[in-house]
Amino acid sequence: MYQEDSEWDDIIPLPQDDGELPLSQIAYTEEYAEAMAYLRAIMAKDECSERALKITKHITEMNPAHYTVWLYRAKVVFALNADIRSEIKFLNDKALRHEKNYQIWHHRQMMMDKLGDPTGETEFISQMFEKDSKNYHVWSYRQWLVKRFDIWDAGELEYVEKLLEKDIRNNSAWNHRFFVLFGRGNNPSQEIIDREIKFTEEAIFLAPQNPSPWNYIRGVLSRVNMPLSTFEAVCKHYAPTGNPSRITSSHALDMLADIQASRPDTREEAEVALQLLAEKFDPIRTNYWNHRKVLLQKAGTA
Amino acid sequence: MSAPPRPVLDKPRHVRYWQRCLKTCLPEDYTSTDLNRMTLGCFSVAALDLLGELPFLTSPEDRHGWIEWVYRNQLPTGGFRGSPAADLGSASRWDPPNVSATFFAVATLVNLGDGLERLKRREILQLLPKLQREDGSFGECLLPATEDEPETLVGTTDMRFVYMAVALRWMLRGQAGMGCPDIPDFDVDKTVAYIRSSQSYDGGISEKPFGESHAGMTYCAIAALSLLGRLDASGLQSVDSLTKWLVHRQVPFEEKDGMDEDDWQEILETGTEEEKEAAMRVERGADGRPIWGGFHGRCNKKADTCYSFWVGASLEILKKLYLIDVNANRRFLLEKTKHVIGGFMKLPQPGGFPDILHSFLGLAALGLMREEGINRLDAALCMSMQAKERLMALDWWAEGRSQI
């Protein structure tokens, strides 16, 4: 209780004024309402003090999405020249307990930017990914970290591979792979592209119906201006349209349809592939595959 | 199996849910949204508006009182704070205008039938270019200058703020940005280029370049482009791959999706092959189509109520909503995530509770699919057509005039 704490004697709390007919009023706990009243009072004074660090810590425990309290805390940390390493430690605990939160990661980014040394960061991120390897905020932060500290070649690709070994369907990891390859601006060598094609083929072999590697290879080929037909044999392997009972991937059918549609002499085969998708292999998207068929027919008569 | 009878929207229950949200205190669990009360308020008012009950089940005094509450959160320098919790009694660096709060405040006022006479419209329009970053994206708040600190733009780089800023420009500047020629506009081309560069290799759109495609971010991007009149090659690298990515977000409901997370884990670890197969079974109708099919927000994730809106609205804006399986989506919402006390849960799991965000977006998603009993809504503004009409009747919307 702040009211009984002599450290806060000099502060006149600033209670919340909601007016007569508030919208979406929340049944605050007494603890939150009181702490907020003291917080408002010292924020209004723009006070930079140890007790400001204490109360902002308390508030973010009850409401980690309070955006101005984090901004205020960042200012106090910098103004007091507080130890940023211990701030990061505090954030570790916070992030592990409040996984879906923008502010914690924004604050971390500000701290890390100031600290200028990413030691320990990728280890902590691994810890976060053990809880949820698709956490959007954490992946976003990781991209920032890689760019900010130019650590593209310090194990990023190896780490992605480790995550994919655990879960080949982790689309966030596939996306990060794309970022590591192309995020630097210049395209990688043909040798690397060949490696990626092989890597994707192996991933598809493990789970042909997993959309991530199919999307990934489309992205890679398009980025380096290689034709989709580079992958035609793989498509045919998983989608032998002459023997529909052996088809094991709707994504192979889809890519095959695209490849065949691009050549006038195989356009009819593309229609067959789309028909199979609409009727048998992806019926939740019947309308979409039929729409594609109509587009194809229109293109054929144009 | 043959499909069960067509479900209906239990409108009275939803109405009661929203009345409770508006007339009683929200439970303590909402404390983590304390600074976003403007958003919660907007959804609550907009939900009753979509249900067509706002004029009948709330009194003019209620609506007037709520309008007053919204204006209490307007800053003297223009823009809004997200909640009275951030009100520090006098001007402060720590009580800055927030772009999301400002968007939701204006939308709430329009929903409540306010004429925006007291809105500091010029100030908001002046604020927008200051919120824009060099790369065309927008920040969340502008911290006012103090004696020893300059005005500071803060916030993550993400598509949500792009949408809010663009929607404010559309609402307050009027047709084609003509409403107040004397106030400098933000750099529209830069914003369009930012959105374009955020379209990912798989066709979806992310919060920023090279991020993972995400249906919520995709909605923000598509709605923004539509409000800017730039749903063309300048704003998108490929409409075809975007459309494809969007329709692929619909996923058949498997038995395990309706299970408690721990129960499914147990089956995965110790269950027999038959048990695993049963858990992954998809029920289909006579036509072979899945009976239930909601939407997820990212590739290989689980279906969640809110994505029926984010994906549905994106397709509606692209005029391609007919490409989804409407029946399966309807059934997912009305049979799997609706709650007995009204409203919608996030996930189709037992023991869940409805919340304001998912309850509103579930309704809005049904509205997009022309559900009986729900008013038509504008997908890009996420408000009823009636509310949009009222907005467009305001002075600055009248063509060729600029009355401020």
TrEMBL record, chain A:
The keyword Repeat applies. InterPro entries: Prenyl_trans_a. One of its GO terms (cellular component) is CAAX-protein geranylgeranyltransferase complex. It is an enzyme of class 2 (transferase). Keywords: Magnesium, Prenyltransferase, Repeat, Transferase. It comes from the Eukaryota. Its EC number is 2.5.1.58, 2.5.1.59. Its cofactor is Mg(2+). The keyword Transcription regulation does not apply. GO terms for molecular function: CAAX-protein geranylgeranyltransferase activity; protein farnesyltransferase activity. Belongs to the protein prenyltransferase subunit alpha family. This is Protein farnesyltransferase/geranylgeranyltransferase type-1 subunit alpha. It comes from Sphaerosporella brunnea.
UniProtKB/TrEMBL annotation, chain B:
It comes from Sphaerosporella brunnea. Belongs to the protein prenyltransferase subunit beta family. GO terms for cellular component: CAAX-protein geranylgeranyltransferase complex. InterPro entries: GGTase_I_beta, PGGT1B-like, Prenyltrans, Terpenoid_cyclase/PrenylTrfase. Its EC number is 2.5.1.59. CDD domains: GGTase-I (cd02895). It is an enzyme of class 2 (transferase). Keywords: Magnesium, Metal-binding, Prenyltransferase, Repeat, Transferase, Zinc. SUPFAM superfamilies: Terpenoid cyclases/Protein prenyltransferases (SSF48239). This is Geranylgeranyl transferase type-1 subunit beta. Its cofactor is Zn(2+); Mg(2+). It holds the Pfam family Prenyltrans. Residues 9-383 form the Prenyltransferase alpha-alpha toroid domain. One of its GO terms (molecular function) is CAAX-protein geranylgeranyltransferase activity.
